[in-house]
Structure formats: structure tokens, C-alpha cells
Write a structure and sequence with these properties.
446 residues; 7-stranded mixed β-sheet; alpha/beta; Aspartate Aminotransferase, domain 2; 15% strand
Length: 446
């Protein structure tokens, strides 16, 4: 998107409003309408043939829809990609992005700190497809990524900001390792959004989001997106990734037909179209409306989260706050490098006193909502050990730093003073802890 003859690229705030959209040709409506139709009428046989060959026009919403196309163009622009594919949820985005690359016998290397739903997808579902996974314990340890790669490895996967402990990925370092082995780096950037970091700018090849979170921003619509950076040389590594460079019935390959967007088109035509996780046009419309205020919200989310994290870090009931915006965070230097606009909204807080302390805070908040969602205008709290990470063993949770005393906070858009006041009154219900961190129930902290 340019705004003058010199080809200048407008700022993010301008592009989040205008990119990918134009007035509706039929009505002149400025906002892309909701094209709530399963199929589309063809003018003649040639138009039908062209639509099915991908040469223009729409045939069926599972294959394409004008409301979805508008959203895809905007998200590709904001991430700096060549194309994007929207799907029904963030979970679908992760699955489809990787299934476009992986097949039976392949191997995936992933950060252990990823979202629990992604981990379960790899361990419980991909394993049934014959796809193996190795988890890297420390996503910031580049040697660990190198050592995990095997001859059958086909992709690396991590999150730009991890959920829930706000760990920051060294995108450039991991991307360089992936590329040295002819592999793409896929980054889930849900918690960062393209406003805080664009992983493609730092060497990542594919970016996925759950648009249900910050991109929509109000918790009203599910969605996901896969963004193709367009720079990975699939044809140069045809032995590792033959699906993009193997001629089809017409004698051409996806690289031949689509150039830099070969991955996106393969994902759209072969994976998403066949598996069918279609995003509803109604949800796409809602996502697009939320996206238009993304920069304003992420700036406020990050500012308020930092204020809350700083306050919590000083509270006697708190053992640890995992937020890379804090000087005390081991990821603070990476946050300075990759997240100059802010470290996002989601972080973990560990309380002295274990489960009973966490229960007391969790059950006594009033402004903060008890929900499994995140990235909402509302502040949210969740106890990972008994919910999102409840299927893991105690040892596995401990390895992730998620024990019974840990709560996840997603800081919303309420006034920072009100959020802190709510936490303060809830913490008054937390039992006092002795020097070992065990809750002392004989008398609560004064």
C-alpha cells in the first residue's frame, strides 16, 4: 500500500485502517460487506472454469470469499508478507501451516514453552500421522535448536512471545539455524501481533496468529491466519519440500505458478480447501473491525501490563513475575531488541503459598474476569496448572515453570489503577506464607 507517487509506505496505524480494502464496487460501501453466501453465480462456462483454475472470481466460500480476501490482504500487509490465508481458529492456523510442510516420516522441532493446545496437537495428533516432534527446553538456547535437528526435520516452530511466561524468541538466531539446514521457521505471534513485532522482518518464513485474541481484541469472534513471507527458497530445497516443486497434472509446480506465494497457495488449495476449516464471513468482518484499532490497543495493553507487573513484583505475596518488560526478566535484552513498542499483555505471576494462594487471588478478583481466553479488552486470570496445562504431569509443569502457585494474567484496557486495586484487594485473601513458601492457614497476612 502506498499513498503517494514516490511510493512511500504509510505508517502501521494508517495501514491497519486502509490496507486490503476498497469501496464495494456494487454499492460504494466503504467497509467491506459481509458476503454471507455459500456459493457464487457464474456468468458463463468460461467464468466457472476460470474460478476453478484460480484465474479470478469466486466459486464457493470454502475456497474463497470477498470478505475473507479483504481480511487476508490486510493481514498480509501488516505482517509484511506476500499472501495470507484465514481459517476458522488459531488452532486451525497452526495445524494447517505445519501440515502444508510436514508429512508421514517427517520431524518437527518446537519450543517446549509453546501454547498447550499446540503441544497437544503435536504430541497427540501429529504423532498419529507419523510426524515426530522434539521439544527444545530453552527457546533462547540456540545450541539446543541446532542439536535437535535431524535429517528428517522439515520445520522449526516457536512463539514470538510465549504463553504464559512471556519468554521472547530470538527470531533471527533461530531463523539462521533453520535456514542453514534448508528449513523454514514458523512463528506463532499471537501474543505480539504485527504491531509489536513482525517476525518476517527478522528472518522467519511463516507467521500464524489466533485472530480470536488481540487482533480482534474483544473476545467476540474466532479466527486464525497463516501469513507467507514469500522469501523461503522452496525450489532450492526440493529434496526436503517436494510438494512445492513437483509438477502436477498441468505439468507445472506451485513455485512455477505462484512464485514467492507458492507456500500460501499450496496451503490454501491443498490443505485448507481439503480439510475445510473455513472462517465464517461474519467472523471475518468482526475481526477486520477489531484490527482497525490494533495499534492503539496494543500500546495501551503493554503500558498497563508493565505497570501491573511492576506493582506485583513488589508485593510480599508474590514470588516471581514473568514479564520481559521488567528489568529483572532474563528476556529483557531480547525484548529491547525485538519488542521496542512493548512486551504485550500476557504474563505469569507466581505466588508464595502454592495452590491455596493462587486459588485465593483467582476466586476473589472483581474487575478481572476468570476466563480461559486472552487478548481481550477485559483483564483475565487463569490457573494454568488446573486448566490449560492440567493434562501435563507435575514434573512437566515444573519444567515449564508452571507450578500450582502460578496464575496467568491477560491485562485488558481498564484503567491501570483499577486493575491494581482489584489485585490488591484479592491478595488480601491470600494466606500468609512461611519462609519456605508454604501457606500458613492459622492466620492470614495482615
Amino acid at each position: 500500500m502506498t499513498i503517494n507517487a514516490a511510493g512511500a509506505t504509510p505508517a502501521f496505524a494508517t495501514r491497519q485502517v486502509h490496507a486490503g480494502q476498497s469501496p464495494d464496487p456494487a454499492t460504494g460501501a466503504r467497509i467491506t460487506p459481509v458476503y454471507l453466501s455459500a456459493g457464487f453465480v457464474f456468468d458463463d462456462l468460461e467464468a466457472a472454469k476460470a474460478a476453478f483454475e484460480g484465474r479470478g472470481g469466486y466459486s464457493y466460500t470454502r475456497v474463497g470469499n470477498p470478505t475473507l480476501t479483504s481480511l487476508e490482504r490486510k493481514l498480509a500487509d501488516l505482517e509484511g508478507g506476500v499472501d495470507a490465508v484465514v481459517v476458522a481458529s488459531g488452532q486451525a492456523a497452526v495445524a494447517d501451516a505445519l501440515l502444508a510442510i510436514l508429512r508421514d516420516g517427517d520431524h518437527l522441532v518446537a519450543a517446549r514453552s509453546i501454547y498447550s493446545g499446540s503441544r497437544s496437537l503435536f504430541v497427540e495428533v501429529f504423532a498419529r500421522f507419523g510426524i515426530a516432534v522434539t521439544f527444545v527446553d530453552d527457546s533462547s538456547g540456540l545450541d539446543a535448536w541446532r542439536e535437535a535437528i535431524r535429517p528428517e526435520t522439515r520445520a522449526l516452530f516457536a512463539e514470538s512471545i510465549s504463553n504464559p511466561r512471556n519468554e521472547v524468541l530470538d527470531v533471527r538466531g533461530v531463523a539462521d539455524i533453520a535456514h542453514a539446514h534448508g528449513l523454514p521457521l514458523v512463528v506463532d505471534s499471537t501474543l505480539a501481533t504485527p504491531y509489536l513485532v513482525r517476525p518476517l522482518d527478522h528472518g522467519a518464513d511463516i507467521v500464524v496468529h489466533s485472530t480470536s485474541k488481540f487482533i480482534t481484541g474483544n473476545g467476540s469472534a474466532l479466527g486464525g491466519v497463516i501469513v507467507d513471507g514469500g522469501r523461503f527458497p522452496w525450489a532450492d530445497h526440493a529434496d526436503l519440500h517436494p510438494q512445492f516443486s513437483t509438477p502436477g497434472a498441468a505439468g507445472t509446480t506451485f513455485v512455477d505458478r505462484n512464485g514467492p506465494a507458492a507456500y500460501a497457495q499450496y496451503t490454501r488449495d491443498v490443505i485448507v480447501q481439503r480439510l475445510g476449516p473455513t472462517l465464517s464471513p461474519s467472523n471475518a468482518f468482526v475481526v477486520q473491525q477489531g484490527l482497525e484499532t490494533l495499534s492503539l490497543r496494543m500500546e495501551r495493553h503493554s503500558q498497563t501490563a508493565l505497570a501491573v507487573a511492576r506493582w506485583l513484583e513488589t508485593h510480599p505475596a508474590v514470588d516471581r513475575v514473568d514479564y520481559s518488560g521488567l528489568d529483572s526478566s532474563p528476556y529483557h535484552a531480547l525484548a529491547d531488541e525485538y519488542l521496542p513498542r512493548g512486551a504485550g499483555s500476557v504474563f505469569a505471576v507466581r505466588l508464595h503459598g502454592g495452590l491455596e494462594a493462587a486459588r485465593a487471588l483467582h476466586d476473589n478478583v472483581a474487575v478481572i474476569s476468570r476466563m480461559t481466553h486472552l487478548g481481550d479488552v477485559r483483564s483475565l486470570v487463569l490457573h494454568p496448572a488446573t486448566t490449560t496445562h492440567g493434562s501435563l504431569t507435575a514434573d512437566e509443569r515444573d519444567a515449564l515453570g508452571i507450578d500450582d502457585g502460578v496464575l496467568r494474567l491477560s491485562i485488558g484496557l481498564e484503567d491501570a489503577a483499577d486493575i491494581i486495586a482489584d489485585l490488591e484487594q484479592a491478595l488480601e485473601h491470600v494466606p500468609a506464607a512461611d519462609s519456605t513458601g508454604r501457606a500458613v492457614f492459622a492466620g492470614a497476612r495482615a
